[in-house]
């Protein structure tokens, strides 16, 4: 009987340690995420479960074609999954749904256009210079994605073309 309170305290201690470690891993290392919209299809189908790597971007800056999670620049409290297209200091332009970086067409085998024959908002844009500590990002399902090509400030209606580095939460990693 005397051993029961000791075992209970030990168990409580182990549960507390496990909980603290789990929460620490989720907060600073790796977080499970869920693809809730079709904006990254066909690369990331709606309903896919992935991991958000929160360590890599402490060691290096985002690169072109990285798939990232970011806080929405429209400040609606949502996290979004998008692909990095243009980096700080580059000039990006969209011409008839084609992406040009510094005047050269970007090879994009992952991009999909469901409405190829329609000219949509954001299909022609720029040229725009990407500011320091910012990125131009697009969804892979270009005609259905809300991204750098169409975001607007809800208060002013002004375009928001870039994601600030501080709003990048991490790098998307494989399924779980």
Topology:
Layout: H1 3-28, E1 30-34, E2 49-53, H2 56-59, E3 67-71, E4 79-86, E5 91-95, E6 98-101, E7 104-105, E8 125-129, E9 134-138, E10 163-164, E11 168-175
Antiparallel strand pairs: 1-2, 2-11, 3-4, 3-11, 4-9, 5-6, 5-8, 6-7, 9-10
Task: Describe the 3D structure.
The chain is 17% helix and 31% strand. By secondary structure, it is an alpha+beta fold. It has one domain (29-175): Umud Fragment, subunit A, CATH 2.10.109.10. The strands form two sheets. The protein has a seven-stranded antiparallel β-sheet with strand order 1-2-11-3-4-9-10. The chain has a four-stranded antiparallel β-sheet with strand order 7-6-5-8, with no helix packed on it. A hairpin with a 7-residue loop joins β3 and β4. The chain is elongated and about 80 Å long.
How many angstroms does the end-to-end distance come to? 44 Å
Helicity range of the residues?
10-25%
> How many structural domains are formed by the residues?
1
Question: From the helix content, strand content and strand pairing, which structural class follows?
Answer: alpha+beta
Short description:
The chain has 176 residues and is of the alpha+beta class.
Descriptors:
2 helices, seven-stranded antiparallel beta sheet, alpha+beta, 176 residues, single chain, four-stranded antiparallel beta sheet, Umud Fragment, subunit A
